[in-house]
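Explain this protein:
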Amino acid sequence: MHHLDYRNLGHETYWWDVLVLSPAAHDWLIHGLLSGWKRPRQQKHYPNLPQRLAHNWGRLPCSLKMLLVAAIFVALGASLSSNHVFGGGLGALIFILVLWL
């Protein structure tokens, strides 16, 4: 579990005040990689920008996350190909394959 906000301590709402994370994601990603391997009291600004972005990403509904990731794959496929329709379709196909794995 990772608290995003302590204002509702004891009356937290999942996915708004608290993210349910694996211990590895909590320790390695949130308090590791995104913080520069510093604990909150060691950081000059907590949460820092990467941590705030991860907090807000975690609050989004799963369906919206899937739409955003799909749009990124389609846009990347379209921008990397000379044929934008083919590239966008290729990006969508890669997204579907990644989703199934």
Q: What stands out?
A: The chain is about 55% helix and 5% strand. The radius of gyration is 17 Å. The chain has a mean pLDDT of 82.
